[in-house]
Design a protein that fits this description.
Layout lengths: L2 H17 L11 H9 L13 H11 L4 H25 L4 H12 L3 H4 L6 H21 L3 H14 L6 H12 L10 H23 L3 H12 L6 H11 L4 H13 L8 H15 L11 H15 L9 H16 L8 H6 L1 H6 L15 H4 L4 H14 L6 E5 L2 H10 L7 E2 L16 E6 L7 H5 L3 E9 L11 E8 L3 H15 L1
Parallel strand pairs: 1-2, 1-3
Antiparallel strand pairs: 3-5, 4-5
Helix pairs in contact: 1-4, 1-5, 2-3, 2-21, 4-5, 4-7, 4-15, 5-15, 5-16, 7-8, 8-10, 9-14, 13-15, 20-21
């Protein structure tokens, strides 16, 4: 193996070692992870919540044993591949070994360490952005149209993972149009490549069409519940934090793309950076949606710094440039990852609050960061539902209905009884198994919901009881109630079908 190969292998190994050390054992899986895992049991070309790629990965995870190790492996793998693509981009730009090490260091010690802790579409989204940008570089270096065809396929895969990658095109295409590279738009094969990308995403578009475009309803819901709390100035501030240890490299990248002669043919990347940010700002997108922009710019900045710091006394600045992302990461390690217990966070809440880490999507500050609170209380919930289920007299045809997808997914993942919970939330509304008649009901209700479950449901059953609740004070599901209703007086299946229809019509 070459020296470069050994160094790259070292970065990849370090990436995996770090990722598995960044989550304290007090925490469980996060709310969204349970939903994404359950997608693997219901393969389709689309879902109410995400495109189909996550379901394919979840199916692989099930085949590998469905352990937490494999659940955390794939986001880590996508992060490691992002480092690899940046490495290859630096090589394509004729960067030195110093540039390779600098670029890999900047990607490794960045917000990707946080992003790659969770099994969500975001990790592959960043990889997709980086790969598409890299393939564009390959094309303009070689003028070989095969790279545009591969870029179209990479974009399509990214689209089938997360629609967020559309922002890449909205920023990149107009930037190319105003650059000297606009001649690509006059080439017939360019449009064939676009057509290829469209063909590859067509199954998902058809699924959206046949299901009345749930992505539009999902966006409207996001706009009314979450994006309304997005502050555009806050969005820009967050961009600084994502790669705070690499700001020198990013600024060097933008400078070089605008003024460095060897990078003249890539100048459109300079305009693409700002066009893409403007599109994000216009749509009031969440701050982390933009993370995928940055890795490729670390490639340009690393190569530029490698070229200007290679002679005379300047070469002594190389270790400082490499050390900077690492040194900045050290204090971040103490607060930006779920590697501290909830008790520790409460004791140091002033620090977390000052950095905005306690602010949730509702725009308010809470005891723990939202992702951390979403990683607690799930095992307790599943254990208590199992205990209640065991006490129900046989035959035990019991329907379990939850208020949200996190509750349903957590019960499905942790239940030792092999229970399968349903919900009227997210994709679970399409997964009810009503092929057998149900006589009993276990109902999981959020604490925030007005407590009228007994009044509403008990008349339809012979026996009703508030059986238990979640007692983990740090969990977002704290005080969530577990009701049990036995021996139905009505046709439960019929009423569930009516409620499903009502919810869908309301949406």
């Amino acid at each position: 193996m070459t020296k470069k190969g050994l160094v790259l292998s070292g970065f990849i190994l370090l990436k995996f070692l770090l990722q598995y050390r960044l989550i304290s054992p007090e925490y469980e899986l996060q709310r969204d992870e349970y939903l994404h895992l359950d997608l693997g049991h219901h393969l389709a070309w689309g879902y109410l919540s995400v495109p189909p790629f996550s379901s394919w990965v979840s199916k692989i995870i099930y085949l590998l044993g469905n352990s937490v190790f494999w659940i955390k492996f794939f986001p880590c793998l996508f992060g490691a591949l992002t480092i690899l693509i940046v490495w290859k981009a630096i090589e394509e730009l004729k960067g030195s070994l110093f540039a390779l090490i600098l670029g890999a260091t900047c990607v490794l010690f960045s917000a990707l360490l946080r992003l790659n802790t969770l099994y969500q579409p975001n990790s592959f989204d960043v990889l997709s952005w980086t790969l598409v940008y890299f393939l564009v570089i390959k094309y303009f270096n070689s003028k070989n149209m095969k790279w545009l065809f591969i870029a179209a396929m990479a974009f399509a895969l990214g689209f089938l993972n997360k629609y967020n990658i559309v922002f890449l095109l909205l920023g990149l295409l107009p930037a190319i149009l105003i650059s000297e590279q606009r001649s690509v738009f006059a080439q017939k094969k360019f449009y064939i490549a676009l057509a290829l990308g469209l063909i590859l995403i067509t199954p998902n578009l058809l699924w959206q069409y046949h299901n009345d475009f749930p992505v539009i309803r999902h966006l409207k819901e996001l706009e009314s519940t979450q994006l309304i709390n997005v502050d555009r100035l806050g969005f820009l501030k967050s961009q600084v934090y994502f790669f705070i240890g690499s700001l020198l490299v990013i600024f060097a990248s933008l400078y070089s793309l605008l003024l460095y002669k060897p990078f003249k043919k890539y100048r459109f990347f300079f305009w693409s950076f700002f066009f893409t940010l403007l599109v994000f700002l216009y749509f009031k997108a969440k701050d982390y949606y933009a993370i995928g922009m940055y890795p490729i710019y670390l490639s340009f900045g690393s190569v530029f710094l490698g070229n200007i710091l290679k002679d005379g006394w300047k070469k002594y600045l190389q270790p400082i440039a490499i050390a900077l992302p690492v040194l900045v990461f050290i204090p971040i390690f103490q607060i930006a990852f779920p590697n501290k217990s909830p008790a520790y966070i409460l004791e140091n809440s002033a620090t977390y609050k000052a950095l905005g880490l306690l602010r949730w999507e509702d725009g308010k500050d809470h005891l723990l960061p939202q992702d951390y609170a979403d990683m607690l209380g799930w095992k307790e919930m599943a254990r208590k539902v199992d205990s209640i289920y065991r006490k129900i007299p046989k035959p035990n045809n019991t329907l379990i209905i939850c208020d949200n997808y996190g509750q349903a997914g957590a019960i499905n993942y942790y239940s030792e009884e092999g229970l399968k919970a349903d919900s009227f939330s997210a994709d679970y509304i399409n997964w009810f198994n009503l092929k057998k008649p149900y006589g009993n009901l276990i109902r999981i209700r959020n604490y925030e919901v007005e407590d009228k479950e007994m009044e509403k449901t008990s008349p339809y059953f012979e026996s009703s009881e508030l059986a238990d609740s979640i007692t983990n004070t740090y969990a977002r599901e704290y005080k969530t109630r577990i009701y049990v209703f036995l021996r139905a007086k009505v046709d439960v299946n019929k009423r569930i079908k009516e409620e499903i229809k009502e919810v869908k019509n309301y949406d």
